[in-house]
Write a structure and sequence with these properties.
2 copies of one chain form a homodimer.
Chain A: H1 23-33, E1 37-38, E2 48-49, H2 51-70, E3 74-75, E4 81-83, H3 84-87, H4 91-97, E5 102-107, E6 110-118, H5 123-133, E7 142-151, E8 166-176, H6 179-199, E9 204-208, E10 220-227, E11 233-243, H7 245-249, E12 254-255, E13 261-262, E14 265-272, H8 273-284, E15 301-305, H9 312-328, E16 333-335, H10 342-351, E17 356-360, H11 362-367, E18 369-374, E19 379-384, H12 388-414, E20 415-418, H13 421-429, E21 433-438, H14 442-452, E22 455-460, E23 480-485
Parallel strand pairs in A: 3-7, 15-16, 15-17, 20-21
Antiparallel strand pairs in A: 1-2, 4-6, 5-6, 7-8, 8-14, 9-10, 9-22, 10-11, 11-14, 12-13, 17-18, 18-19, 21-23, 22-23
Helix pairs in contact in A: 2-6, 2-8
């Protein structure tokens, strides 16, 4: 069906920049024009989450919390501040974080006796408590999470939601009787992330990080790297098997089923909520603003009455009837009967990513149908009044499927195999995600980074990929197949 | 019905101290034994919220958020840190808070160029943003809230949930075209608090604070003071009419309907979530632990099978049937089929305040009934199987009504009129809440505090009480009837 003409009107403001041409400018503009994030707070790395962002944040938080709680995690809340003495107890961990922490040193006009760290992550806050809570195998597994902001003094250029000095996340802290329990938890964490990211329509690589690239204090680290439209990847969640590193440093022990005193094996799982929001915006958005699946935008369906001349009453009463009908069917529907022009309304709700818009004018009243506009494809279709609720229900699934398929198609198109150093250099120049045999040496990864800007992100763990030759970069025997990408 | 005998068993641990005799000791013990709060974190004024507390916290947050959003508030999130320069802009406000703030002065091992305040409240964070967001009367009203922790360097003795250096709250920041809009918001805020506090069964005084006792930077302040069982009151929510104080200091203006540039009138509303939890624990709890209305404990109904000898299967299958039936009826029900003794189970679920326990043993299977134990009165009753869902539904209302009535009866019993200084001294010694004529002078309030420890909490605004004589303390003409109490 052709675009609506006289009675619809066109967007009152120019579209956003082309995402494919300049993702950075597109992103900055959509954050501002969709009133998501205000970057003018005046402290580097700290931004204001406006209601249109905060509503999505709250929904994403509750999606993850529901999955975590369904698998036996309980909510808790640890203090923001960590005493210096605790922070220093796990040596690798402190080395990994000490250049990144904010310190509270004064209060009420006087210096504090002991400096306090503002949490960059909460291992050093919870392990002293675990030592108090865990005594016997009956206290295990212990599975806790908190939904909080954390603080890291990033010295690189900050970017709203992507890299900030304050960011929102969920962190779990779990303890088990043995390695087996902890490793099963890693699998479960990855499953939690997969379920939520799939219901957000994101595309991702699930990888085990290379040994030299682990979380400070971990035995092994696993990550979700989302693909951004410019071909870079963004780490949106990581889960870590910590072995006994932290239970040793913080003297956490339990008496096992045989009466022996042992140390629990632990895990932690960090889910980047700010970054998930960034990935959601960037993956699906277009020149007209956000594109979101049902359940994330401020409304799922917006009804725009299009009134001309004397037909107002029939149009408005039909619009109200549809609002009631869809509301009763369980959709988050909104009738926009404000005084703005239809064009202004189209612009606003498209910018906010409302998945379905219903246009109701004289023709729709007379014809017993509704003009339905779906945000993901920007296509219009006629739907008979009697079919509307059913069709909207279908679209909840279709739109998500479409967004997810698009994202995965882009990921599949992006991945290319490199057999030689020349391949790596060329594919990096083309901005592809590179799959290659890799020797596993840190020095080799460092050379790749220096020459191409690409990082070795790790080996995929959701598929079984075995090296079939030598390291694409150095030619030594390959240990595994890895993915290389430019990382945010 | 008499207490259950052989097959029920008694609580395996001694009851808590008597709340009436030693509220402080009762409180400390219930926090520990119900695993609500861990005070052993090691930084004064900072505590760990364990899952049993955090679940209630999350529910109380969402009760308030729902009421706020239903009345046009939108969620947002401001940074934790406030630049010194912003903090200093409203003079009364900075005077009120400067002795209480934590400062971040270093990061990544180096001093920061500008010290950052850790938010004690967020007026000085949001007003510079309001200046960017508000241009025209069309941008008003602006009604925003955030659910966060705030930080105040309390030098008085700290007490978990009651007075901490980190506490959880909701803060709203609202802007209106004029005083009328702002004062209507104050009424709405008080209504939001009333609705939630009533559904928590709390008893409270709603008062306007005396002029010298306002929030720093406010024109007038209104508070909810909850009654605690020891006769003291606890401020659990306050809303403030800020006039143009902050919009003047932060240069927030808008163009009104007539084209004139004016300053918005603003309000802010602070809802103490940590303190609401404390009031909930203290108001309803008893020697067996928490007592909670439906919707707040980890479960609403717990089923305890009581198995003796060969009857296990009949008992368990009935217990499972009841669990399914009540679950289908929408109750949060849990079948405790763990290996613990019935006595252990009774103890645990009573400690956590689960409102209804169902005991199912051989007699119940044979008799076609259930033994229902309600936590608030600790009474048992027989309920025919066919009546169970209906009866549990009734109890959701009855238990809340009973808790609320008890709380309000205690408040009504506590209030006593003082006509003279001797009355005030005597009633303060008796621990009553005092209603008295008051001259309105700060010096008089200070004298009362010095001699009796009592504070003038303000005049009630939910009823019309007029002074009928002179100030009970100084004998000068009275301006209003006020309530005096020992405040937490």
């Amino acid at each position: 069906m052709p675009a609506r003409s006289s009675d619809g009107g066109s967007a009152p403001e120019a579209p956003l920049p082309d995402k494919a041409e300049d993702l950075g400018r597109w992103y900055d503009e959509v954050l501002e024009r969709a009133e998501l994030i205000d970057v003018r707070y005046g402290v580097k790395g700290f931004v204001v989450y406006r209601p249109n962002a905060m509503r999505i944040v709250k929904r994403v938080y509750s999606m993850f919390e529901r999955e975590l709680e369904a698998r036996g995690h309980s909510p808790m809340l640890l203090p923001l501040v960590i005493p210096m003495a605790n922070f220093r107890r796990e040596t690798e961990h402190v080395k990994g974080f000490e250049d990144q922490v904010f310190y509270i040193t004064e209060a009420g006009g006087k210096p504090l006796n002991e400096k306090l760290i503002v949490r960059p992550t909460s291992e050093t806050a919870i392990y002293p408590m675990m030592a108090l809570w865990i005594h016997s195998y009956k206290d295990l597994p212990l599975k806790l999470y908190q939904s909080v902001a954390v603080y890291r003094y990033e010295t690189k250029a900050t970017r709203p939601l992507l890299r900030g000095r304050e960011f929102l996340w969920i962190e779990t802290h779990d303890a088990f009787e043995d390695e087996r329990g902890a490793l099963a938890q890693i699998k479960e964490d990855l499953e939690v992330a997969r379920r939520v990211y799939e219901s957000l329509g994101l595309a991702f690589l699930v990888v085990e990080r290379e040994p030299y690239d682990k979380f400070p204090g971990a035995e092994s680290s696993y990550a979700y790297d989302a693909l951004l439209p410019n071909g870079t990847v963004l780490q949106i969640a990581t889960t870590h098997y910590l072995g006994e590193h932290f239970t040793r440093a913080f003297e956490v022990t339990f008496v096992d089923r045989e009466g022996n005193r042992r140390r629990p094996h632990t895990t932690c799982f960090g889910i980047g909520i700010s970054r998930t929001l960034a990935a959601l915006i960037m993956t699906h958005g277009d020149r007209y603003g956000l594109v979101l699946p049902f359940g994330l935008s401020v409304h799922d369906v917006v009804i725009v009455p299009i009134v001309q001349g004397g037909s107002a009453e029939g149009v408005l009463s039909k619009a109200r009837r549809l609002e009631e009908e869809l509301g009763a069917a369980g959709f988050n529907v909104h009738l926009d009967d404000s005084e703005d022009t239809p064009g202004d309304k189209f612009y606003r709700w498209e910018m906010l990513g409302v998945p379905v818009r219903l246009e109701v004018g004289r023709r729709e009243v007379e014809g017993g149908y509704v003009t339905l506009f779906r945000r993901d494809t920007r296509e219009r279709e006629r739907v008979a009044d009697a079919d509307l609720a059913r069709r909207v229900g279908e679209l909840a699934r279709e739109i998500l499927d479409n967004l997810r398929r698009r994202a995965w198609d882009r990921l599949a198109e992006s991945v290319a195999d490199a057999r030689t150093r020349e391949d790596v250099v060329r594919l990096a120049r083309e901005g592809r995600i590179i799959r290659a045999n890799f020797c596993g040496e840190e020095e080799c990864a460092r050379a790749i980074k220096e020459e191409t800007g690409y990082e070795v992100r790790g080996r995929r763990i959701d598929v079984d990929e075995r090296p079939t030759g030598n390291c694409a970069w150095c030619g030594r025997p390959a240990k595994r197949v890895v993915y290389m990408a430019k990382a945010y």
